[in-house]
Amino acid sequence: MTGLAGERCQACHGDTPPLPEAEVEELLEQLSGAWDRSGALIRRHIQTRDFAESFSLATRVALLAEREGHHPELQVGWGHLVVELTTHAAGGLTRNDFIMAAKVDRVIGPAPDEPRP
Predict the structure, then answer these.
(1) Considering the entire predicted model, what is its pTM?
(2) What confidence tier does 16 reach under pLDDT thresholds 50, 70, 90?
């Protein structure tokens, strides 16, 4: 495993600074194109066949988050799962968010018609 997905999340504290804009842009390019940025968070919307698939994927992401100690916001619904990442302790995006996003890409796979990162 190489790149961001091969890294481990590090504990953050109140004095952990958010990443500079240039680094955020650089790290976004290392993720699948399925991630969107909205201010201080990154988001991936996954289409699913039904609620059971959404819940199954959310469970896989939740177990991954527990292993990494970095927890996304998950919105589970019929036909979709939304994963949002930000580092509350830093008040913005940190490397941990991009590490988790890369690991989510590995667990969920690419968006339709998108090559695997």
Answers:
(1) 0.90
(2) confident
SS3 labels along the chain? CCHHHHCCCCCCCCCCCCCCHHHHHHHHCCCCCCEEEECCEEEEEEECCCHHHHHHHHHHHHHHHHHHCCCCEEEEECCEEEEEECECCCCECCHHHHHHHHHHHHHHCCCCCCCCC
Q: What is the token pair recorded at 25?
A: 């842009």
Domain 36-111 matching CATH 3.30.1360.20: the answer reads yes
Amino acid found at 102: A
Cα dihedral 106, 112, 115, 117 sign = negative
Distance CA 59, CA 38 (A): 24
